Amino acid sequence: MLFVITLTNRAEPDAVHAQLDAHRAWLATHTLSGRFIAAGPLASGTGGLIVAHGDDRAELDAVLSADPFVALDLVDVTVAACAPALRHGDFPARWAPSAKALAR
Asked: Which of 47, 50, 52, 62 lies at a 20 to 30 A Cα distance from 34?
């Protein structure tokens, strides 16, 4: 299962910025573990986006609750789950095992 997680800032920018290093360390930990595929700030500057992989939504929720932004109530969190049916041939099958690979 793939998850698209949107973090929308709800706190003042100074409060968010004060936790940015801790948030980035949290992101790095879960990216290195393979749980997060990609993450970064939204172009609008209003928050961030994380693409995650996993089988258990409850486990993902536990991981998200440890994010300093979430723990300190600095962001609103939205999670959308998807079981991909198609994937580009270059996209790793381990992140979308039941998706049909398409390539030229």
From this structure: 47
